[in-house]
Amino acid sequence: MSFLPNYRPKKLSLGFLEKEILEIVWELKQVTVKDVHDRILADPNRELAYTSVTTVLRRLTEKGWLRCEKQQKKGRAFYWEALVSRQQAQAIQAYERLNNFLEIGNADVVASFADSLDTTSIEKLEAIADKLKKLRQERQ
Questions:
Q1: Do 75 and 98 fall within a single domain?
Q2: What is the span of the domain harbouring residue 73?
Q3: 3-class secondary structure for 113-130?
Q4: Are 41 and 95 members of one domain?
Q5: 78 SS3 class
């Protein structure tokens, strides 16, 4: 069973406001600019221009995180929805981080890092290694 989706956003890096707005989209499933703007301004200590929300939603669409559709039956408004779930995004980002770490290519550095982990982390690594062995055996 693979947790990684076949689809991946074009750009994984997200700024603070992009992450915040993506979280709102995941929570509400389908949003308009007004939905996101209202949610952010629900915090009395926040200020954010409506146009800034539009810009961020468009940027998330360009990066491949969201899709935008114009819906005639709902007042001709534009609606955004996520192309990957929160769990898929976490899996993609974890996969990329692990690959970047392993690109060091020096087994001594990686082993030294792993050796300095606490007991709980080492147990997690061992559980991952066991799971990998089982998955590979099942494929053969």
A1: no
A2: 16-83
A3: HHHCCCHHHHHHHHHHHH
A4: no
A5: strand
